[in-house]
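DM from R.C. (forwarded with permission)

"hey, sorry to bug you on a friday — could you get me a structure for this? deadline for the figure draft is monday and I only need the backbone to look sensible"
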Amino acid sequence: MSNYNNKKSIPLDGFKGLKQNFSSDALSGFLVFLLALPLSLGIAGASDFPPIYGLITAMIGGIVVSFFAGSLLTIKGPAAGLIVIVAGSVAELGHGDSDLGWRLALGAIVVAGVVQVLFGLLKLGSLSDFFPLSAVHGMLAAIGIIIISKQLHILFGMNPVTESGKPMVEPLELLVELKNTFAHFLQHKDVDIVGFVCLGIVFGWPMIPIKAFKKIPSAVVVLIVSIPLSNYLGIHNGNGYTPLLKFDEGLDKILGVNVNFDGFSQTGTFIKFVIMFALVGSLEALLTVKAVDMLDPYKRKSNTNKDLIAVGIGNIIAGVLGGLPMISEVARSSANVSNGGKTRWANFFHGVFILLFLIFAVSFSDLIPKAALAAMLIGVGWKLAHPREFGYMAKIGMDQIAVFIVTIIFTLATDLLVGIAVGILLELILHLSRGVSFKSLFNSKMIVNGNTVKVKGAAVFSNFIKVKNKLLEFPLTSDVVLDVSDCVLVDHSVIETLHHLKDDFETEGGHLVIMGIDEFTPISNHKLSVHRKRKS
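My reply, with the result:
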């Protein structure tokens, strides 16, 4: 019998789990803390929040949210994927006043947290299944491009907002402005040296062939190198130029009610950011939970509805105190699994170590060069917008690469909500052009006969949540049949979902059989491509 099917081997939860797995979870929590420390500061700074409040979010995500979370291995904290939304809310709500914009953005974060709690109570944990995967990947790639385009300016000691004199610089303007930054990158030579060295560490450290070194996060190495290097080069804040972080207040002054709900008066803008925080934050959190469940060596399944409630509670508290919105963060969660974290206590310990840092070593953050944080964030952005993402989508099919690229373009030209909406619309238009009726796009007709679920019309992202929920009503130990023989199309998102569901059933000893799929033709050589019914 496999290890993960042996119930005795599954780590205990609750306080019994704390006793059983104290050493492994405490060690993993400490290692994740080392990774979370610079990233949380960098994400907050890039979001135009006071950097230290990134640590407030991570602390709450660990110490508070770990007790409510429906996912045992995910690490909660600020995420690079929300940088664009947070920075946009500060600029638009504050109209150039960054301190006011921060406090007004907090109001939107609190309200979005309430919405996320409602999502969980309404059992919308399957929300991520409604979005076509190609559009989701396009949204994340666009976020990566925006992060890189902004942080490249910071890496060279430039600030595109200050240089332009505008309260907010649009993504396409950031890209265009790079030519000016590159032309003047020697304006701050010492900062350039730190930036280039840190960028080399971010991209070069994972390539080192020594396994012991690879266990040390590149972000930690960046801190170890950049702080003494910047000190050696004599980099310091002064005369209106601040290449180092600046926040010298203690925890007693940091903690307090900072939220301002006057943003309600800007009704349209306020509602827009509430929707963005709630939708994009929930979507990213749910995708991370899915990914980490697949990494769990014990194959435990998270309660996504419970996790949404927990994240919502965390965002309400973080928003009141001044912190960024949190999600289940993928890089830190993956590090937790690889470092041997076994239960929710690893997330808790990561929060405890952040709290200790805030109490005893907060002034240390003043030594960190902004260029070092920019290098880390460029690495994060590169992972989100990696060229292999484009290649992967192209292999699945030209339709998917089209949705992917269109989502990127509209996100860069407008905002995330418009970008993902256009991606969804294009995917629906493609389905209609392939013979799917308008009614079938949103309503899947099901016939259940014993352990067989028959779907009529089409199986596509926009109608499949009901079908998936019906399949999951069966025990994973049973043999279940999904009959798609009366469908004209099974799309990419559904094909990929079915692959994961088959793995889930097989892991528990059951089977999910897709009947009728052999009557379909994939539109490309990739196994996850759209499948069209062959004409008889």
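R.C.: lifesaver. The CA atoms of residues 339 and 495 lie 32 Å apart.
me: no worries. The longest helix spans residues 267-295.
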